[in-house]
Structures are given as C-alpha cells and as structure tokens.
Amino acid sequence: MLLVEYLHYIVAFPTISLNLLLILLIVFSTGKAFRSYAILLLANAVADMLYTIFETLAMTRVIPIDNNLALVFHGVCKFINWKVCFDAHAISIHLVTFTLTLLPISFWYRYRVTQKTQPPPRKIILLILIAYLPSLLTMIPFTFAGVTPERMLAILAETNHSFQALNLGDSAISGLEPVWNVKAISFDVWLCCPCFPVYSLAFLYRKKFISALRGSTLSHRTKSLQENCVRALTIQACFPIVFMAFSSTYMYRQFRLPGYLSLPYSDELIFLSFSVLSGLSPIVSLYFILPYRNRLLELVHIRHRPSYRVSTVHNSVTRKSQIY
What residue ranges are annotated as transmembrane (predicted)? Predict the structure, then answer.
C-alpha cells in the first residue's frame, strides 16, 4: 500500500496547486463581463481542490464484503481516529456529486449567452446553492452510517477475511453494514442516480448552444470565445465518465460477478482517479478560456501573440464589451 500512498501525494500536490492558481486568477483577474461565468468556474475549482484535500486526508480503499462494505483509510486521518477518516471520505464524495450537478448549469449558461441574456451573478449563485443542497442533505445522515473498527473487524472474521490477508497494514477501518442501510441509502442513490438527468440536460443545452450559435449575430471573436468555453466544458464533462468507469469496478466486486477477484488495485484507485481528473480540469480551463490564459501568460512573462494584444482604444472598448 506504500506505493499507492505515494501516488496520492504525488497527484495531490499539482492538483491542489493548479486549482488554487485558477481560483486566484478568477478572484483577481476577472472582468465585469466575465463575472457570472467566473462564479461557476470558481465553484468547480473550489470543489475540485477540496475534494483532493479530503481524499488525500482519507486515502480510502473500498473492500466489498458480501452485502457490507469495508472502508480502509491510509491517509493522515488514521493518526486521529476512524470517525475523522469516515467524515473526510463523506465530504470528498459529496463534492463529486456537486461537481457533477454543475455541468448542466454551465451548458445552460453558455446557451443563454448566445441569446444575449447573460444571467446575473445572483442568479448563478442561487442555482449553485440549489445544485449543492442535495449533496449536502444526503451527506449529513451518511456521516452517521459508519460502523466502528471493532464491528468491521468482526464482519471480516465472520466472512473468513482477515486484517492481515487483506494487507490493511497501518490504517484505520470503518464501513457500512449493510451497504444499503437507512442512513446511507439516500447518499448512495444520489451518487448513482444523477448521472442520466445531468448528462441529458448537459447534452440538450450543448445541442441548443451549437444551433443558436450558428444563427446568432454575435461577432466572429465572440463566437470563437463561446466555442472555446464549450470545448472546455465538453472535455470536462467526460471526466466524471472516467470516474464512473473506475467506480463500476466496485459494483462489479460488490455483486460478485464472474472474475471479480481478478481486478488488481481497483479498490485503491477509485478515488485517486478523481483526484487526477480534478487536476486536469483547471488545465483545460486555463488553456481554453482566453482571459485567464492571457493573464497567466503575462504573469510568467511569456509574450502574447499579436492577435491578442489590445493596441488601440477602440479595441480595448470592444474587448471589454465581449459577452462571456
């Protein structure tokens, strides 16, 4: 398990740093025309950064045991107690569901811009809070669902598993008994069920955006900016699919499907995979979203291409009036 622990730290440092960089650029380099969409970017970056912090604190390994689930924690939380580890795990998971619900809001925003009806910041904040509530409300009872280490070790013994055979090492342990218990079921359902409506809405508004952009009277430059934003969103929308693919290995083992024992390291890599994706997300944003890319290039003293320079008063006014 030592190698996996090192991987967590190796992934965590650049992921947290990149999201912090994006957060600082959003806070200090956002123009008025870009403020509404910047709030969405900020919410996503904060969620990704916090997810990585709490996931690294817990370093959760999931071990399906019949109808139960053992959660083994290798992070620094093990030096405090198992409850801190379980709560850190719950917080990290609820941030995954929150970032997922931000996807359709982001595509909806881009569509509204093509209609020249940019939503005001207050409306964006309200929508983000509404999207966050289900994740928060389902997480709260889940934090009380964890069983004590003594009970989980007893379950391991009853099912002919042993602490040593599972190579748990120096770690904290908790879990769910059973997986679908009353305190955990709403959280489990919310983790699994939003995928279809979220991606359906995201696909719908992406399609409407493309159609509206083709027939819009926006300038060529503004259209190009909008297309870049949607390219970034489309790439970021693929990230949860990768996480769900890793998560499906857990379901495969939980239901003991054929060959479920021959999935090496799947129990350690499920949550690490989302930390990797959380580090890729700010890279995509910084590459495709021009205001932040240009500001970053200025900070590292890299010369802009001539087409991005604001050389006259007229161009300066035009740029400030762009709808993002």
Answer: 6-27, 34-54, 91-111, 123-144, 184-205, 229-250, 270-290
282: domain CATH number?
A: 1.20.1070.10
Q: Per residue in 207-246, pLDDT tens?
A: 888 888 777 766 677 777 778 788 888 888 887 777 666 6
Quick one: average pLDDT of 268-295? 88
Give the C-alpha separation, 149 to 41, whole Å: 39
Residue 170: how many other CB atoms lie within 10 Å: 9
Cβ–Cβ under 8 Å, residues 237 and 247: no
Q: What is the pTM of this model?
A: 0.84
> What does the alpha-carbon distance between residue 265 and residue 207 come to, in Å, rounded to a whole number?
38
What CA–CA distance (Å, rounded) separates 145 from 140? 10
Query: Once rounded to an integer, what is the mean pLDDT over residues 95-121?
Result: 88
Q: Residue for token digits 């939503």?
A: 119
**How do beta strands 172-176 and 68-73 pair?**
antiparallel
Rounded Cα–Cα distance for residues 199 and 287 (Å): 24
Q: What is the mean pLDDT of residues 52-57?
A: 96
**What is d(CA 168, CA 150) in angstroms, rounded to the nearest whole number?**
15
Containing domain of residue 156, as a range? 2-320
For residue 93 the two structure tokens come to 């998971």
| Strand ranges of the sheet holding 60-65, from the earlier edge strand across to the other edge | 60-65, 68-73, 172-176
d(CA 110, CA 106): 6
What end-to-end distance do the CA atoms of the chain give, in Å?
46
Q: What is the pLDDT of residue 208?
A: 85
Q: In the chain, how many domains are there? A: 1
